[in-house]
Amino acid sequence: MSRRQRQFNQLRDLCYAGAVARAIDLAFEHFAHFGRDDEIIDLLAHALEDTDVAGRARQRFAELCASHDDGP
Q1: What does the alpha-carbon distance between residue 24 and residue 4 come to, in Å, rounded to a whole number?
Q2: Does 72 have pLDDT greater than 60?
């Protein structure tokens, strides 16, 4: 299994466990190494909808999306 796949699996597991803030932090690292992954963005967005997370986690998610936006 590749490092990319292991990290994705870890992100997914963190989201399922409700550790969304930690998953967002790991996503920053993942994107830095492998580039933007819309599957991860979707995973995190759904996790944010399904859990009661602090505003700081939502802010970090917005920062993640903005910092790795494909843009024009």
Answers
A1: 15
A2: no
